[in-house]
Amino acid sequence: MGFFDFLADAGSKVFGKDEKEADVTLPIIKHIENSGVDISHMKSKFAGGVVTLSGYVPNQEQKEKSVLTAGNIAGVSRVQDNLILGAPPADAAAAEQAEAEVAAAEEGKAGEAAWESKTYTVQPGDTLGKIAKEFYGNAMEYPKIFEANKPMLKDPDKIYPGQVLRIP
Question: What does each C-alpha distance from 19 to 7, 15, 70, 136 come to in angstroms?
Answer without folding.
Answer: 20, 6, 17, 42
